[in-house]
Structures are given as structure tokens and as C-alpha cells.
């Protein structure tokens, strides 16, 4: 059961977060078009930025260095540093939190759980998650500061 929870958090939870933004915008109306647009834009920019960083910092993943298996659904490929999942999850969460703190707090918890699960699942080191989170938060703050109309 524990492995299933870790696998869900490390592999699927990020998609649940994205679906939640769309669902809240469409059904509940608590997240307006601007909030969802900022969240999606910040997520894309965070993904691209983290992917570029990965090309400059070739780092093996924990399961490669320690020989233990992973607990994720899909076998990860590429470099470990920084975590794209963390960058995207935190960009999404902070973007929402800046507009809607109550809902954003739930998303921040989800981002933290994703990061922790990626470490426990043996696909990232803690530093990968921390730097990914910093990237995601920074991108979300820049998008908010620029107040880009989406």
C-alpha cells in the first residue's frame, strides 16, 4: 500500500493538480481565467527552464548510483538535476497561492508531497527537488510580477 501511495504521488499527482485547476475554473468558478492562465504559463516556463538546466548539469539519478529500483510508474530517463516535476508543481502551486491562498495552500501541500515522493521513490536526490522548487517558485513570482495577460 505504501509503495502504491508513493508511486501515485511521484507519478500521477502532478496531473491531478493540473486537472484540478481546470476543473475549479470550469465548475467552481473560484479560479478565474487569469489565475489558471498564469498557473499554466508558469508551469510551462518552469518545465522549459528546468529542462535547460538538466542539459548543463549531467547528474545520475539515485536508482542508477545506488542500484535500487524506483517506485514510479514510468522509468525516468535523463539527468536528475534539477527535478522538472518539482519545478512544475511549485510553479503551479505558487501561481495559484498568489491569487487564491486557501486553494493555493492545498496545491503547495501537493507540490511538497510530489517532491518528497520523488525522493522516496528513488528518482531524485533532495537537492534536485530543492533546486526544482526554487526554479518553480521563481518563475511563478516573475510571471505574477510581469502580470502577463493570458
From TrEMBL:
Family matches, as InterPro entries: PAP2/HPO (IPR000326), PAP2/HPO_sf (IPR036938)
Membrane spanning stretches: 6-27, 39-60, 80-98, 105-123, 129-148
Record flagged with keyword Transmembrane: yes
SUPFAM superfamilies, sorted: Acid phosphatase/Vanadium-dependent haloperoxidase
Keywords: Membrane, Transmembrane, Transmembrane helix
Gene3D superfamilies with a match to the protein in the record: Phosphatidic acid phosphatase type 2/haloperoxidase
Domain called Phosphatidic acid phosphatase type 2/haloperoxidase: residue spans: 35-144
Family matches, as Pfam families: PAP2
Signal peptide: none
Protein name listed in UniProt: Phosphatidic acid phosphatase type 2/haloperoxidase domain-containing protein
Organism: Candidatus Woesebacteria bacterium RIFCSPLOWO2_01_FULL_44_14
Phylogenetic placement of the source organism: Bacteria, Candidatus Woeseibacteriota
